[in-house]
Amino acid sequence: MLAADDEPRRGLQVLLAQRGLSVAAAGDLEMARKHLASAECDVVIAASDLVAEVAALADAPQVIAVVRTRELATATTMLDAGAIDVLTEPVDDLAITLALRRVVVARRPRTNGQTSGHGSGKGSIAAPEIIGDGALMTKLKSTIKVIAPTRTTVLILGESGTGKELVARAIHDASPRRAKRFVAINCAAIPATLLESELFGHVRGAFTDAVRDKPGLFEDADGGTLFLDEVGELPVPLQAKLLRALQESEIRRVGDSASIKVDVRLIAATLRDLSEDVAAGRFREDLYYRLNVLPVAVPALRERAEDIPQLARFFVARHAARHHREVDLSDVAIEALARQPWPGNVRELENVIERALVLSDGPQIDVDFLGTVMKVQAGAAAVDDQELSIKKATRSLEQDLIRRALEVTSGNRTNAAKLLEISHRALLYKMKEYGIS
Fold this sequence. Notes:
Blueprint: E1 2-4, H1 10-18, E2 24-26, H2 29-38, E3 43-47, H3 51-55, E4 62-67, H4 72-80, E5 85-88, H5 93-106, H6 135-147, E6 154-157, H7 164-173, E7 182-186, H8 192-200, E8 201-202, E9 214-215, H9 217-220, E10 225-229, H10 236-248, E11 250-251, E12 260-261, E13 265-270, H11 274-279, H12 285-291, E14 294-297, H13 308-322, E15 328-329, H14 331-338, H15 345-359, E16 364-365, H16 367-378, H17 390-408, H18 413-420, H19 424-434
Parallel strand pairs: 1-2, 1-3, 3-4, 4-5, 6-13, 6-14, 7-10, 10-13, 15-16
Antiparallel strand pairs: 8-9, 11-12
Helix pairs in contact: 13-14, 13-15, 14-16, 15-16, 16-17, 17-18, 18-19
């Protein structure tokens, strides 16, 4: 990975390095050109003034733009210049995760005519598997098998972290549309001003800096499946346009007077109670009934605790391979995992296991080490019911977390800072402030 960026954005390089990614830095186009000519690179994260030039290089990888403003015109200019995604400073972990996922999807090649995402490229990535053989997951897999062959809209319901996109992909992969694209978008992750153009596209001159026509995701998914995650976050004006697209099987680009026919199966997902949003006037009733034709509920992890051992072993194997480690979980540790409530569901379980694996230095993760990691991640610090000072509670929480992180990492301040998700300098400052040695 190459960060074609200037000095003020080095925090982005640190964020990427903390995710276990190999990152090289280039301060200008010439440095970027030399790096791309001499080393393999999966993605370039570039400052706005370098995007067009980097994207124009021969055999250039996918480009993610970093801009300082959230204006629609700026973001559109970056996309027109060749960027696959646009991030606004300051870049957070969620934004970079979604952008990198789009890059991964875009690099999936065609196999027997099948595509997924926004493009094709070198390398292949196996389709994710729905893990779990308990009663609830067996029922869910049966439901997927029944509804997959249809053209009907599906609404996937479930808490955050339960794997709603995984279910949507499984429906697509089991459908007659599996030879066409599966295109996913998180409606909550894109500014409302950009979302309409992202979904429906725009024509040249539709707004400032719209220098050429740009197809939207409906056109990208023509013949395949479009997955709208967090559909409850759609602005009300866009809800009307989405309803028309579903009813008429046609869309209209921003700034265009002509309609375009599309053949798209829509799968939507939400963690919100859309019926409550309808009652409150936040979601159109007609769109709700149009989406809620085939509702599919994804169970929370606490409701299928019998699947946790299988999931835990799967995640250990996945991340051990990624980090080039030979590590497993003790039987007692797996039993302890199965007893947890997991409010963050499967995503939280995976995060705990990856963190424990990265911080461990032995061939096996035992229950004591796992428990310490979980306490630090949860940030659970007891606060006296009579002590309602936020300032004091925050200081107490910080001290407790720092001590626990240092304990987990055997005093390694660099690893402790990563565990706490703060900079090494900030950790040293806080240790001095609290008198922690």
